[in-house]
Design brief:
The structure is a single chain. With about 350 residues, the protein is α/β, with parallel strands linked by helices. The protein has 13 helices and twelve strands. Strands 1, 2, 3, 4, 5 and 6 form a six-stranded mixed sheet that branches. A six-stranded parallel sheet has the order 9-8-7-10-11-12, sandwiched between helices. Helix 10 runs antiparallel to helix 11. The longest helix has 21 residues. The protein binds nicotinamide-adenine-dinucleotide. Nicotinamide-adenine-dinucleotide (NAD) binds next to helix 5 and helix 6.
Length: about 350
């Protein structure tokens, strides 16, 4: 498919190819939609096998950011960037060169951290452009977003419990967390403080020991996560773990966690989960706390405001579940429609002629 055909398929506004040989930079910035505001999305550093893979990834991810910002109610559009290369080759020069390209877009794209990029890399970018978020708190950024993400996931879980049990109360409920890294650890802390019983699985013994020592709970091995006797499964590790193989094992009535792309196949697995009567909080809705955090940084809000806004994910998740019920569809369809309806409504407002 030609590049323009690919842009048309997902309805992208702009793709920018960036090259600076001296700095070892080959990057692609994709701006999907700026109806609601400047496009925002992290920059991923990855050694893609082919350029076509890099283009596919950046187009898919930037479109996802449009939907995430729209449902979260933010004045942001969707964008994303990829730098093609071996993560071990990264340098100050690479990120400063990338920062200069961002600057040339005059605010149409704002970057942030993503896979293999760190707060230090954002600090290099910041020396060339102000259109960067997620840099270290010492240089005016909002720092690690994962506590805010976890706070939003906690409230999303409460919303699901309310839909299923008539009360958002976490006390006495049980939650199985897959991956107790940055997000999973903070989520475990909130759930523990609210009186939940916890199950964990992780490939890192060190991380499992940390949560066991601090919050107690039970470790699950391998597939035991999926059949956990828990009220909620909270995938907080990698994508694609909810799939045709694992869905039949699930006993929990709720899937609500922080990981991106939890469903291996959004449509088929979304249908399968819904047919089994499981309430699924769409990943990009419930894990929007990180995006809310960087949005707060852009607006100059304090972290307290970001945390309060992330708690609003409670209402967003409930709205999406109720919309799915009333329209007889899956929560994924309902959240996608919520995003599209908001973008269409704002686009109409922006087309309005005054006088
Ligand atoms: P992290 O790397 O700190 O934690 C991931 C944890 O999962 C690690 O402890 C790792 O050992 C574990 N893990 C990896 N593979 C596993 C497997 N097969 N089974 C069980 N455990 C496994 O990452 P994070 O920042 O906590 O992010 C977790 C997920 O949430 C990712 O999908 C990420 O894209 C998503 N997310 C994170 C944020 C954020 O603010 N950090 C925001 C939105 C979405």
């Amino acid at each position: 498919m030609s590049l323009f055909d690919q842009m048309t398929a997902f309805d992208h506004e702009q793709i920018v190819f960036c090259r600076n040989e001296a700095a070892g930079l080959r990057a692609i910035i994709a701006i999907h939609n700026t109806t609601l505001g400047p496009s925002l999305g992290g920059v991923r550093l990855w050694d893609y096998a082919t350029e076509a893979d890099a283009v596919r990834d950046v187009l898919r991810l930037s479109r996802g950011m449009t939907y995430k910002a729209a449902v979260a109610g933010l004045d942001l559009g969707g964008g994303k960037a990829v730098i093609i290369g071996d993560p071990s080759t990264k340098s100050e020069a690479m990120f400063r060169a990338f920062g200069r390209y961002i600057e040339s877009l005059a605010g149409r794209y704002v970057t942030a951290e993503d896979m293999n990029t760190t707060v230090e890399d954002m600090d290099h970018i910041r020396r060339e452009t102000r259109f960067v978020t997620g840099s270290a708190s010492a240089s005016g950024g909002s720092g690690d977003p994962s506590p805010v993400t976890a706070w939003g996931v906690f409230h999303g879980i409460r919303a699901c419990l309310e839909v299923v049990h008539g009360s958002p109360d976490v006390a006495g409920r049980s939650v199985a967390i897959q991956g107790v890294g940055n997000v999973g650890y903070h989520l475990a802390r909130h759930l523990h403080e609210a009186g939940a019983r916890l199950f964990y699985t992780d490939i890192s013994g060190r991380r499992l020991n940390r949560v066991l020592e601090q919050f107690g709970g039970t470790v699950l091995e391998g597939d035991e996560f999926y059949s956990a006797p828990a009220d909620v499964l909270a995938p907080c590790a990698i994508g694609g773990t909810i799939n045709a193989r694992t869905i039949p094992m699930i006993r929990a009535k709720v899937i609500a966690g922080g990981a991106n792309n939890q469903l291996d196949d959004e449509l088929h697995d979304g249908d399968a989960v819904s047919e089994r009567g499981i309430v699924y909080a769409p990943d990009y809705v419930i894990n929007a706390g990180g995006l809310i955090n960087v949005y707060s940084e852009l607006k100059g809000y304090p972290r307290d405001k970001a945390l309060a806004d992330a708690a609003g994910i409670f209402n967003t998740v409930k709205r999406v579940i109720n919309k799915a019920k009333s329209e007889g569809t899956t929560t994924i369809h309902a959240s996608n429609r919520t995003a599209e309806e908001r973008i269409e409504a704002v686009a109409r407002v922006k087309r309005m002629h005054l006088g």
